[in-house]
Amino acid sequence: MDTRTAINTTSNRLLNFLSPSDRECLASHMDRVSLVVRQTLEEPGQPIEHIYFPEDGVASVVGTSNGMGQYEVGMIGKEGMTGLMVVLGNSQSPLHTFVQVAGSGLVMSSAHLRKIMAQRSTIRDVLLMFVQVYLIQTSQTAVANAAAVLPQRLARWLLMCEDRLTSKHIPLTHEFLSIMLGVQRSGVTIAMGELEHSGLIRADRGMVHILDRKTLIKLTNGSYGLAEAQYEHLFAPRTA
Asked: Is this model's pTM higher than 0.85 or not?
């Protein structure tokens, strides 16, 4: 499949929101790639060489605190892109971005993206709209981490993960969840058990199956939904 066909058939919602001419401008600079679990997409303090537009799978943006472990601060999937610091005019990030759930996507060099944004304000403006939504997501993560109990935070994380996957079955391990939620594995086990006992999820063999999405949303007590609603508002389907 050539790159023009790839970008015109992509499931990445951010790319699909661009006009046909803007997608055409990006197409010749993109390649379709597989995204494998634990693959590093951005290294803290290192130049961001490539920008990824996931089509399936989940990338986690993680911060590290000396002596306090790792904590997820953001999540990116088919709704968006990595390399937001490049969109904002920087060349590196203090955070680590890696693939948490395997999938696929389109990739281009950050150098090409910089040139294209300088030439096409329409592309730059759409990418900045996604930065706005992502900032709301990270602010809600901070609120959830400060105010929500662990089962609520787990419910929010599972909903966000499901939003970004083509399958309703979420592959995960307690190791990943402990990083995502900033707790010990024993805490993850307890929270998973609570959700499963309530009939909201089913967990088996490294997979979680969401059984009652509506009740999970209620359980989050408002920590899920603000960024998602803003995304749907900004990226509503174009009308003819």
From this structure: yes
